[in-house]
């Protein structure tokens, strides 16, 4: 009687990282199962056994992005000593990270699921929630600036945070279109010029 072969093993984290890059480059709908399987170096049965479905794989890929590549920007924000420094770090680190040549350009969370349809409503809502969380996280940094006397108590922190997050999202699209780091930093500097009128007493 012939012995059955052992199941093929693979590095799950490595395969997930490769899937993340496919979703990052092509978006959820543009990432075909064939492209994912080829990039991950596994067969279709192994993919479904390990991750369950394309949607579940995408969710894990987003978590992987947030914990890895996506965390670099927020580390710079949290390390800043002032509220202005936090926003400057937010935009300048964005310019560098989004334009790297060893990764897909732009932001996975911004670019991978913009178009709504009946089949993507659930996971697209999760991306929208993550983008909204960015605004809340930046607003918390601004609140510290109010407490330190750097920002006027009358300033609309949510509106300010939303403005700078919107600039970042635009930088993501610019980066995907091929805009280089220097030009992205010019965009960041132009946005930072609005800091004083946005944060001063009214």
TrEMBL record:
InterPro entries in alphabetical order: DNA-bd_HTH_TetR-type_CS, Homeodomain-like_sf, HTH_TetR, Tet_transcr_reg_TetR-rel_C_sf, TetR_C
Keyword Signal: no
A Pfam family that the UniProt record links to this protein: TetR_C_13
DNA-binding region of this protein: 32-51
Gene3D superfamilies with a match to the protein in the record: Homeodomain-like, Tetracycline Repressor, domain 2
Protein keywords: DNA-binding, Transcription, Transcription regulation
Every HTH tetR-type domain range: 9-69
One term of GO molecular function: DNA binding
PANTHER family reported for this sequence: HTH-TYPE TRANSCRIPTIONAL REGULATOR YJDC, TRANSCRIPTIONAL REGULATORY PROTEIN
Official protein name in the record: TetR/AcrR family transcriptional regulator
Species the sequence originates in: Glacieibacterium frigidum
